[in-house]
Structure formats: C-alpha cells, structure tokens
Amino acid sequence: MTEEVDERKRRTLRRFAAVGAAAPFVGTAGAADDTNETREAIRGYVPSTPGAHFSKLRDDLRLGTGEAQHHLRTLEEAGEVESRKDADYRRYFPAGRFDELDKRALGYLRRETPRGMVLALLSDPDATGAELADALGVSRPTISAAAGELAAADLLDRTDGYELTEPERLLTLVVRYADSFDADAVAFADEAASLVSYDP
C-alpha cells in the first residue's frame, strides 16, 4: 500500500514538475537545485492554481507538511513565490504576477460560497439574496455573511442589492483559472462568451 501511495505522489510531482520546467519562474531557473522534482512541481502548481492555500498545495502535491514548508520558504526567499495571509489561510502566488485586488479576488474565488455567488452574479447581475441562497443550496445568513466578506474585500457593493464591483476582473480570473476551481467554474467558463458583449 505504501508503494502505491509513493508512486501516486511521484506521478503527481512529475506532472506538475513538467509544467514548472516548461514555464519556469523568473529567478533561480537554472540553479543547481532546479532538478529537485518537488520544487519543480511547486513551480508548476503555483502559477496554475494561484491563491491556493498551504494545505491545498500540500495535499494536491502529496507532500509532507515540513517538506512543503521547506520548499515554499526556499522559493519565497528566492523571489519566485509570494504569499499573503488571508484570514486563517496563507495563500501562494507566482511573484510579481498579481496586484493586491487580484490576490484578494483569487482568495475568495477559492472559497465555495463566495465563488458560487460570484458565478451566479456574473450570470445574473440582478440575483437577490434569496435567489443566490436557492441557487447555491445554502441559507440566507450564509449568503449574507459571504456578501459581507466580499464587500469588505471591495469585490461587492451591497448598497442596492448585490452588485459585483469588478465583474470584468472576476470574469477574467474565473475563465483563466476555471480548471483549478471546480466543475461549476469550468461549466461557467465554457459558456462565458455568451456573457460578454462587444460594443465599440
């Protein structure tokens, strides 16, 4: 059983290491330790899953806690990866690629209820709190709490219902990183062209 787990870990690391090798970060690419498969896997994972928190990264790459901490610290010190605290989470991003609002947006898009709200409001900007609760299968207080967090992050205006303050930015992030969210985001991204109108 342990051999099977180890082989799955090696396959996962190799897959993300291939991504990391194909599109290396600016920084220590070519350094002597770049052959480290775990570090290459993180180099591939972080740009394809920006805003992932530590536990998700560790679990997706099948790493031990200390192993993940060591390699992330090394990459941060080398200026290849940056992180930011988000409530109880530390989220990781490729260095220099996102502004603060993008980082906040990606953090909320990585949470199920806020992401569901964003997708629903991008599809139907007039959706009410009750309609959002029904669509997401959660309670009204859950929607209200998530709306408060999105508003505090400058992503939602609650002055008159619920209105996304940065719909184009959120749409772009959802479409670009849909595969790293969930099946609902992928389905949304597949239909996103119908939501965009060109009016020169």
Compact overview of the structure:
By secondary structure, the protein is mostly helical. The chain has two domains: 1-98, Orthogonal Bundle (Arc Repressor Mutant, subunit A), CATH 1.10.10.10; 104-194, Arc Repressor Mutant, subunit A (Orthogonal Bundle), CATH 1.10.10.
Question: What report would you give on this structure?
Answer:
This protein has 200 residues and is mainly alpha-helical. It folds into two domains: 1-98, Arc Repressor Mutant, subunit A (Orthogonal Bundle), CATH 1.10.10; 104-194, Winged helix-like DNA-binding domain superfamily/Winged helix DNA-binding domain (Arc Repressor Mutant, subunit A, Orthogonal Bundle). It has ten helices and five strands; from the N terminus they run H-H-E-H-H-E-E-H-H-H-H-E-E-H-H. A three-stranded antiparallel β-sheet has the order 1-3-2, sandwiched between helices. A two-stranded antiparallel ribbon has the order 4-5. Helix 1 crosses helix 2. It starts with a helix and ends in a 9-residue tail after the last helix. 30% of the residues are buried.
